Amino acid sequence: MLLALAYPWLAHWAAGGSDLAASLALADLVLIVLVEGLLCRRLRAWLALAAALAMLAALHGTVWPRVLLLAPPMLFTGLVAWFFARSLADPRGALITRIVAALDRCEPAALPPRLHRYTRRLTAAWAGVMTLLCVVNGLLALIAVPDGALALLGTRAPLTVSREQWSLFANLLNYGLVGLFFVGEYALRRRWFPARPYRNFLEFMRMMGRLGPEFWRGLFTRP
User: Where do the TM regions start and end (predicted)?
Assistant: First the structure.
């Protein structure tokens, strides 16, 4: 969690031109991906970490670490959008439908019809929001100067944004918009479905956490 919280600030710091911050942000991403294997002392995880750090050391001082940081905001939002959208065709139920059913301790099919429809539509709404953010992140990465994708290819875009403006959206506002949608939807849900098994937002988050790592891992795997 601390690694995930640190990444947006390191990436935004790197947008100011800091080579050190760019390398640290990429190293932070590597640790986020490998942390479970590292804690379990898996040899391949430690070898992957060593290889990644060696590559970052070789690239330090070049433009490439900052160029590589253009990709994660688009890849992250695109991957999340894909998980939400893919679950709409899952015979076990849409992603949020399964989460709500787990909180209610029942099968997705046993949810009240109105709540079942709402959770399915909410899953589709999350897929749409994350797809929109993915597209916006991709467009901004294309037109950022001086080291956006088009600028590096020697093409001048008709409309450009500074690296700092791209970073402000991709590394900070991105997550703020996601959080705002999450909190806003919670408030709407409390109004439309007042009889829920939690009394407030804090209790809701605690119940989400108590579902456990096995549930969350299974949620994103194919049947």
Answer: 20-39, 46-64, 70-89, 124-146, 166-188
